[in-house]
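Hey, quick one: can you model this chain's 3D structure?
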Amino acid sequence: MGFRTCSKSRLPAVYAERQFVDHGGLMSHGANSTDNSRCAATCVDKGARRADRPVERPTKFELVIDRKAAKAIALTVPRSLLLRADQVID
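Sure thing. Here's the predicted structure for all 90 residues.
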């Protein structure tokens, strides 16, 4: 199901990328794309050949929750989850 379908159908959805929450989605949990881009840029800046670049896994994941989106679908987000979030958007 797509982003708009979930919103219109009032279905809670968790996305892998923060950009969906920035555009009204309920919550996201995934690798921090800024950190990933910074790491890739460092490898390119050092002039490493693609075959010589190390394989790296994300080390920072973020949980972002939009309380306004939760309220729109009549969902109460548990306080324990709100406390674990890296960012709560009101």
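One thing worth noting: The chain has a mean pLDDT of 83.
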